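Dear V.,

Thank you for sending over the compound details. I've combined the ligand you provided, adenosine-5'-triphosphate, with the protein sequence from our construct and run the structure prediction for the complex. I'm sharing the raw inputs here so there's no ambiguity about protonation or stereochemistry in the SMILES, which I know was a concern on your side last time.
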Amino acid sequence: MDPTSKRRRIERSPSPTYKLDGDGDDYEPYIPLSQRRQEKLARFSSLGVNSERQRAKRLEEEQEEREDALKEEERLREKARKERTLLIEAQEVQRRKATEDAKKSEGEKAEEADQEILEAIRSRRKLVSDLELAKGIHYTDPLTASWRPPRYIRERTEQEHQKLRDKYHILVEGEDIPPPIEHFEDMKIPEPILEHLRSKRIVTPTPIQLQGIPAAFSGRDIIGIAFTGSGKTLAFCLPLIMLALEEEKKLPLVRGEGPVGVVLCPSRELANQTYENVNVWCSALAREGKYPQLNSLLCMGGISMSEQSHVLSKGIHIVVATPGRLIDMLEKKKFTFNNCKYLCMDEADRMIDLGFEDDVRNIISFFKRQRQTLLFSATMPRKIQDFARESLIKPVLVNVGRAGAANLDVLQVVEYVKQEAKMVYLLECLQKTPPPVIVFSENKNEVDDIQEYLLLKGVEAVAIHGSKSQEERQYAIKAFKSGSKDVMVASGVASKGLDFNEVQHVIIFTMPKEIEDYVHQIGRTGRSGKTGIATTFVNMNTPEQTLLDLKYLLMEAGQKVPPFLASIDDPRAAQGGSLKGCPVCGGLGHSISNCPKLEETQRRQMASHRNVDGGGY
Ligand SMILES: Nc1ncnc2c1ncn2[C@@H]1O[C@H](COP(=O)(O)OP(=O)(O)OP(=O)(O)O)[C@@H](O)[C@H]1O
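Below is the predicted structure of the protein with adenosine-5'-triphosphate bound, written out as structure tokens.
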């Protein structure tokens, strides 16, 4: 028997009266036949009602399905109609654009394309970190400084300040620009430092110092652009030393405290050189015991931090660093930026646009308070300035000469030398001047080959490039600086910004693709007011666009343009386009769409930026 029907019957008979045997499982109460018939009838009739309902429901569902299908059909028809219209519209737009484009000159089209690229650059993120904003550090006014120019200078009129700027060809931009000061003595620099500078024949400020130092002493953010070898290092280090001195005088720093400020450099060599300068100036300050000793720390890859443990055991006033190692130290909490107020980037354009951008942003995120930010370089094209400016507070732009222009104290000679004749001709070229001479090549293997060749010919030469160990690099720089070696063969990046004593002659064995690199390379001579010669070898392998950049640069600097360069025509002129320089690299012979730096930037961004030649880390 079906157990459910049994249960049903049991439920329907809630009050069993008799139990014959067992526990009742087999028990079946008696139901009269008439009652059972009635129940059966009722069951059948209810079944009939259900099937009626189901049929109605099915019909309803079928109807709904039909309606849905009709709606879907209609929707698809509508979609197809719209798509056709969009397609037709798109075709019409294209047709219109093609007609408009046909009316435009090649030059106009090129300018439009340039604008698009510029827009893309503009849309890049600001240097200020999101973290910094999230931490609530938001300020709209520059830092307030206690330094004031001497009263007699403050009382001068703005016209008088401008006259002085004009005299030194200093261009400025910004609000409430502090006055230029013509004498170090009027800058209220401590006497021991002045005395040291005098001993190095640094007696009167260079134009970038004359305007940059008072602006930095006043607490202002700065974008400083000036020729290679024009004394930018002093312009950004002196204000940091003064700031550190002020802090130390207020409350001496003890172990675990500091730094007050940091100088960031794109290469180890530059960091090392800047650190040495800072150290010398700090020692000079403390020499007579009138001023406290300020401690500085060099923070870069390739040196062991245990060497610096004696500095870490005291308060640190100044850190000079390359980005990678600095981040490492900050992450390991070797020191903090809790009280750091000053951030300077040397060769700032390189730091921002060549792979270090994220590192810089990361470093900025460690600051816990308002800071003064300074960016210095010899080559900072307008667009990089604009980009950087967004991250600064009411910055003062100090510009001496066009950003990217060559130093006028360098006599530039460009010679056509066949590839196979270069080595032999190099020997001849070395006779042009007495040593020291720097020979530049873009290629590490070529650097090694040139050094080997020179050594074979009995020339005392050292070599430096990114694949050399830190010790080898330091040895080469030291030997060349001390004068024990006559020639240094170098790859471009490894020696950028380096200041060697009175280099007489720079020979560019292979012309770099980017004109900015050329400007930096020839800038190793003709420094601090002295004159120098730069000889550059070019040939069939030099890209025409690079030659055109070179031609315009020579023309701008009033140098002799050799006939083979003069005969190169500018394709932009033929297209009727604008002959403005490239806003990205400052090259005068091409527009942004052909910018070799932009290509290079993209390439480098794809590669790991920690591996850049000259390795910051
Ligand atoms: N006011 C000055 N008078 C004379 N010499 C100076 C003065 N200031 C700096 N110098 C010297 O000029 C040389 C170049 O200075 P520095 O290295 O700061 O140049 P720079 O502008 O940073 O160049 P680069 O762009 O190539 O890095 C140094 O040897 C420095 O001692």
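A first observation: The chain is about 45% helix and 10% strand.

Warm regards,
I. M.
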